[in-house]
From TrEMBL:
The lineage of its organism: Bacteria, Bacillati, Actinomycetota, Actinomycetes, Micrococcales. It comes from the Bacteria. This is DeoR/GlpR transcriptional regulator. SMART domains: DeoRC, HTH_DEOR. Gene3D superfamilies: 3.40.50.1360, Winged helix-like DNA-binding domain superfamily/Winged helix DNA-binding domain. InterPro entries: Carb_Metab_HTH_regulators, DeoR-like_C, DeoR_HTH, NagB/RpiA_transferase-like, Tscrpt_reg_HTH_DeoR_CS, WH-like_DNA-bd_sf, WH_DNA-bd_sf. The keyword Transcription applies. Residues 6-61 form the HTH deoR-type domain. Keywords: DNA-binding, Transcription, Transcription regulation.
């Protein structure tokens, strides 16, 4: 089907915005070879359909939607100091000789950078980015196992190939990043296919560590992965309110607040 047919073009525009978090009219017009006015009509229809939120010069995802799934690039620029502090603390839980799993995500990607300094560890991940990072400059004796699967917008490998690979393994410690976490809905994601993979990562490990900065608190994805009680340790930053820390402490045994 031609990309210039309105319905197909709008679907592609929606995919671009979901991947990047936002898009400009001029960039979309150049990509699809149509006029700015045509793109504006497309965006107006997508806004009317409730898919997008219009901003000056372009459009972005509807704020707060549980089905929003920003791409890796758009998320990687957010909360950088917090992610760095969380990753540094998480790396201290990994010792030579351990096997660990890292789910896909920008905070676990930050952890992977720190793990490059630790020798003789085995890392299982469903993130091609994490696998590439570790393979490019591995410490002595490191082994990296990348699951197969279908690649999502957030660069996670999911589906039957991924679940088969994870089901056959058992690791010492799982490090999980999430779209959001809350008391009511636990750990959540906007992608249905990530649910089973992430549940298996939790099940196939002796210890489960959630890595999530304060911006993830109270955010609810469309699909629940697990209750908060499934997590042994939460490493977050110190921007959480005292009342929130108190509420989390009732569900998670080991709660660590890192200064960004």
């Amino acid at each position: 089907m031609s990309e210039n047919l309105p319905g197909r073009r709008r679907q592609l525009i929606l995919e671009r915005v979901r991947a990047a978090g936002a898009a400009k009219v001029a960039d979309l017009a150049a990509e699809f070879g149509v006029s700015d006015m045509t793109v504006r009509r497309d965006l107006n229809q997508l806004v009317k359909d409730g898919e997008l939120h219009k901003v000056h010069g372009g459009a972005e995802l509807q704020p707060g939607s549980s089905a929003d799934e920003p791409g890796f690039h758009s998320k990687s620029a957010l909360q950088l100091p917090e992610k760095a502090a969380i990753a540094t603390a998480a790396a201290k839980l990994v010792e030579p000789g351990m096997s660990v799993s890292l789910t896909s995500g920008t905070t676990t990607f930050a952890l992977a950078r720190a793990l490059r300094q630790i020798p003789r560890i085995t890392v299982v991940t469903n993130s091609p980015r994490i696998a590439d990072l570790l393979q490019d400059a591995p410490a002595e004796g490191q082994t990296v196992l990348l699951t197969g699967g279908l690649r999502t917008v957030s660069d996670a490998l999911v589906g039957p190939l991924a679940t088969a690979a994870i089901s056959s393994l058992h690791v010492d410690r799982c490090f999980m990043g999430v779209h959001g976490f809350s008391i009511e809905d636990g750990l959540s994601t906007p992608n249905m296919m990530e649910v089973e993979v992430n549940r298996l990562f939790l099940e196939r490990s002796n210890s489960r560590v959630l890595l999530a900065d304060h911006s993830k608190w109270g955010t609810k994805g469309l699909y629940r992965i697990a209750e908060l009680d499934a997590i042994d340790t939460l490493i977050t930053d110190d921007a959480l309110l005292p009342a929130d820390v108190e509420a989390l402490a009732e569900h998670i045994q080991d709660l660590r607040l890192e200064k960004a």
